[in-house]
Amino acid sequence: MNAPSPSLASDLIDRFAAIVGPGYALRGAQEIVPFLTEPRDLFHGRTSLVLRPGSVEEVAAIVRLANETRTPIVPQGGNTGLVGGQVPDASGAAIIVSLSRLNRVRKVDPGADAMIVEAGVILADAQAAAAKADRLFPLSLAAEGSAQIGGNLSTNAGGTAVLAYGNSRDLVLGLEVVLASGEVWNGLRTLRKDNTGYDLKNLFIGAEGTLGIITAAALKLFPRPRGVGTAFVGVADPDAALALFHRARAKAGQSLTSFEIMSRLCVDFVFRHLPGTRDPLTGRHNWYVLFEISSGSSDADARALVEAIFAEGAGAGLIEDGVLAETIEQARALWHIRHGIPDVQKFEGGSIKHDVSVPVAAVPELLRRGIARMAEFMPGARPVPFGHIGDGNMHFNFTQPPDMDKQAFLARWQDVNALIHEIVGELGGSVSAEHGIGQLKRALLPQFKSQVELEMMRKIKAALDPNGIFNPGKVL
Predict the structure, then answer these.
(1) What is the pLDDT of residues 264-281, one digit of tens each?
(2) pLDDT tens-digit series, residues 143-180
(3) Are 188 and 235 a contacting pair, CB within 8 Å?
(4) Side-chain half-sphere exposure of 55, counting CA atoms within 13 A
(5) Other beta carbons less than 10 A from residue 385's beta carbon
(6) DSSP track, 185-251
(7) N or C: which end of the chain has fewer CB within 10 A?
(8) The pLDDT value given to residue 7
(9) Residues ≥6 apart with Cβ < 8 Å to 247
């Protein structure tokens, strides 16, 4: 694989800028700054140019020139990624290609339960376009107000509805992708069954922009629920939460669309730092579960299922206390607690984060071992675990001890990662459940992927991007 150019000459910058026009070629330092960092402030890059193409043809022209001149390209969506995949390195050799102007909903077809949207469409806008056609696009996550579809697919984002609908990969029927040659692969089919060889779209979903640039996607839609029931309950421990999940799944089946777990410290942080939130229960509990039922019939049907699960869980001693949302506003308030957890941790100091998954049955063991080992390793560190217990994905975070210096705590990031990832490996899990690899976890891959797997990935990269222009230094 040929090495990309080490620097950007001014005449080359002019050639790239001419493709999109001066108004969409950002060169000023202040204009560029927002594109060079990411939400956790772990990675900072450099570039001389941010391009904001307005069409697939402009993206293709940029890629052709980049391939010709061996110029690295870093594709960027809403810049909400949490592993540094959207940030260039410090060399300044790469250009950033922001897809934010490719923001059209091209087609919504309720008869086919599908829609075609461009990569820069904000996730919440995609949800709204589906709802306008009386359909549901179920991908849902905390950053949905700014995350873009292209980035969601490039990282195979998960979210809170994976339990019923799957990850991003499971919601895609087809893709439009600009390849390293500058050719455009139009794979925007909306077929539900197509058994004609390799499933090419899945090469690009989860590839984090290292194989091509996704410019549009054909997405699956679903019937909108006619009723939703939401409950927030206190439980003694993760074992009780898991037992409740199994009972809820047995009773509700696919109608159980979300099942989230969070520790008491998580909700304490929310109530302390997120305005407008309050504890919906009268007593304190060590752990909490937020679960939701969606019904194709009515709110009454959904509520009846929630009440049945609640009664069964309480009768089995799994639920200590709980509340059922009586209105949409109350349901939103309960979800506001869960969605607020990632942001409020910063108010308590440094936070070392993990996005891991284990087999569903192993989640309580992961939490037990992780909390115990961390207490031995760093007394006073505060565990802040929350996540999607129904699919085995935990955001197993730790906040600094109150009397510890923030930078001293963050300097132990790799040590704490190693501690948690060792347990994840022992339980047969993954060190990246839904955030991707990016820069943050690239060095971990050899521990969790065999040499055969890694070599297959390298061969795919070499075949599709022989000059190494797409997002170098990420994933591999």
Answers:
(1) 999 999 999 999 999 999
(2) 899 999 999 999 999 888 899 999 999 999 999 999 99
(3) no
(4) 6
(5) 24
(6) EEE----S---SS--THHHHTTSTTSS-EEEEEEEE-EEPPSEEEEEEEEESSHHHHHHHHHHHHHH
(7) N
(8) 67
(9) 309, 312, 313, 316, 318
Strand partners, 352: 398
Dihedral of CA atoms 444, 447, 451, 452 in degrees, nearest 10, equals: -90
pTM of the model: 0.91
Q: Which amino acid is at 443?
A: A
Overall residue count recorded for the chain in this entry: 476
What span, in angstroms and rounded, lies between the C-alpha atoms of 82 and 68?
31
Average pLDDT over all residues of the chain: 94
Nearest to 404 by CA among 370, 375, 379, 383: 379
Residue 198 CB contacts under 8 Å (≥ 6 apart), including other chains: none
- In 3D, which of 163, 118, 161 has the Cα closest to residue 138? 161
pLDDT recorded at residue 132: 97
What is the C-alpha to C-alpha distance for residues 385 and 395, in angstroms, rounded to an integer?
6
Q: Give the count of beta carbons closer than 10 Å to the beta carbon of residue 316.
A: 12
What tokens appear for 201 in the block?
A: 């779209």
Residue type, 165: Y
